[in-house]
Amino acid sequence: MFSKNKIIYIVLMGLSALLSIVKLTLFSSILGPEEYGLYSLVLSTYIFIVYLGGLGLNEAIIKLGSKAYGKQEFKYILKLRDISIFYSILLAVFFSIVFFIVINFIQIDNKVYNSLLLSIFLAISALEFNLMDAFLRVQHRFVSYSLMLFSKSFLVVLTGYFIAPIYKANGVIWVEIVSFFIIFIVVLFYNKNERFCFSHLKNSLDFVTDAIKNGIAILSSNIIRNLTLNIDKWAITSSLGLVSLGKYSFSMIIYMMAIFSLGLITTVLGPKWLSEFSSFNNSKILLDKINKVIILVVISGILVFLLFIFYLQSFLNTFYPDYSDITIYKTILIIFLGLLFQIPVFLYDWFFIAVSNEKFVLKMTFNMFMITFIMILLCWYFKTSIIYFALVFTIVRIYILTHYLVYIYKKFAVKDYN
Question: What are phi and psi of 320, to 5 degrees?
Answer without folding.
Answer: -135, 65
